[in-house]
Amino acid sequence: MLAKPARLQKNQVKARQVQGHRKELATGDVRALSIQPSQESTLHNGFGTVADFFPGGKEIIGRVAEKILTEEMGGWNPNKANVFSDQYISSGGQLAELILGRDRFVMDIRPLVFRKLGAESSLCALPYDLCTTLIAEQTGVIVTKPDGSPFNPPLDITTNVAFAAYANAGLAARMQPIVSRVLHECGLL
What is the 3-state secondary structure (H, E, C) of the chain? Predict the structure, then answer.
């Protein structure tokens, strides 16, 4: 019988201040790297992305993204680019963009979409892809399951995981009800 995958209890890890350094390769100079998620309370003039990397479910993901981003922005203005999408093809990289203050919202719902389509796919984020979640949370980034419940996947290499990540608690509080409602409307929760 196989053992159940372990789950890391985040309160078992002592909180530490997140620090970063940047090294100039040509000169060897080292300087501090600012680690500060965005403190903006909206997506206005920022990056908000719903992962849509590969064919298979793009229509559903696009509909979800359009509904969430349009509602969060208070409607669509065809004459303005109010929110931007950055399909950074790495879940860890997406968290880094949040940690460094470049992105404000990232969500990956591929496992939910594939389930709705009746398809099994390994083209999803796996727990190790999100191994920097604790670092992100220590900077103030909020990482949850798309329904808003705690994100604590098993520590294995096979479980497809869905997540929603917000640059700060205020943005999470504003957007989470929108995200949950849209996912329910689209039959994903």
Answer: CCCCCCCCCHHHCCCCCCCEEEECCCCCCEEEECCCCCCCCCCCCEEEEECCCCCCCHHHHHHHHHHHHHHHCCCCCCCCCCEECCCCCCHHHHHHHHHCCCCCEEEECHHHHHHHHCCCCCCCECHHHHCCHHHHHHHCCEEECCCCCECCCCCCCCCCECEEEECCHHHHHHHHHHHHHHHHHCCCC
CATH number (domain holding residue 85):
3.40.190.80
Tokens of 79: 């004459």
Residue from 52, 150, 66 nearest 108 by CA: 52
Whole-model pTM above 0.70?
Answer: yes
Residue 6 lies in a domain: no
Tens digits of per-residue pLDDT, 45-80? Answer: 999 999 988 888 999 999 999 999 999 988 888 888
Q: Which residues of 87-123 are buried (b: 16+ CB within 10 A; e: fewer)?
A: ebeebbebbbbbbbbbbbbbbbbbbbbbeeeeeeeee
* Tokens, residue 51: 């992962």
Which residue range(s) make up the domain with 119? Answer: 44-185
